Amino acid sequence: MKRTIHHLSHIDLDGYSCQxxxxxxxxxxxxxxxxxxxxxxxxxxxxxxxxxxxxxxxLIFITDLNLTADxxxxxxxxxxxxxxxxxxxKITLLDHHGSGEESSKKYExxxxxxxxxxxxITYDYVKKHFEFDEPSWxxxxxxxxxxxxxxxxxxxxxxxxxxxxxxxxxxxxxxxxVMFSTEDTKYKLSLLLEASKFLNEENAxxxxxxxxxxxxxxxxxxxxxxxxxxxxxxYIVELLGKARKEKTIYYKGYKxxxxxxxxxxxxxxxxxxxxxxxxxxxxxxxxxxxxSLRANNKVSVAQISKEWANxxxxxxxxxxxxxxxxxxYRYDRVKKQIEKIINDKEAVAGDLEYKKES
Length: 358
What we know:
The protein contains 14 helices and eleven strands. The strands form two sheets. A six-stranded mixed beta sheet has the order 6-7-8-9-11-10. The protein has a five-stranded parallel beta sheet with strand order 2-1-3-4-5, sandwiched between helices. The protein is of the alpha/beta class. The radius of gyration is 23 Å and the shape is globular.
């Protein structure tokens, strides 16, 4: 029986390379990525919610992330509860961080090997346990990741190429991975897939280093060429447009769009408002709770910012900071916080100034 795989992995080269390997298996896969801390728990909660909703035989597949004793206990308990309800869920965790030793001794699904990077562990595991259409370059790429992740400087060629691949992932920040998790993972995996093509070239690290910019542009480009900034902005505005139903908010009769951690609000925000003129304003909230608001002569965002967060600015460009904002790694939880502010303010605030300030 082929299970639907919910694959949670880390956000570095090793983590994404585990997901690159899984691209060459025939299974239905949903990718999730997390850094350590609260994000791991939130992404696991999301996985469990999706499994409940889809009601399919599933595998929770975790790579390059060590779970704490509490996280392991909680996940094991939640899966057991669901299986008692006639769900069919299994867990497999493949990791190489020694800090997971306690959990690895307690749970049979927790596999720990500190001698190999997670990509190499995943590669060996997939060859043994999964259907796998392995490309000819895969083993060489796995060795590159292993060399740089375990800092094997004596493997000069692999190590040097791995350093460039590591930077390729670390500096690929055009897409926000909370707002656009699917597209962001697709972006990073596509770049790593392109990087695999130069493995055996003479001066491979230099070649890849020089091609990074053009590889990024190629991902975003649809027809005519442009700067990376303009290409990625157009791509992001299109993504925002596709998500309008989920991400629309209303305040005192005005229609707004809520984004989270997108940044570059002057360019992206104004691009969105120009493309979708039915919106009166757009607000982007950062991970720390700072707000950046933009409008296009339909409402004073300086007034909105003042009412929401004692902020201020100009009629078409304003900002502020939400006191008590809790950083989230799921958009739906951010929206709940903002909607609570809106509901509270609408209940007590006076009428919003309809005219743009002079």
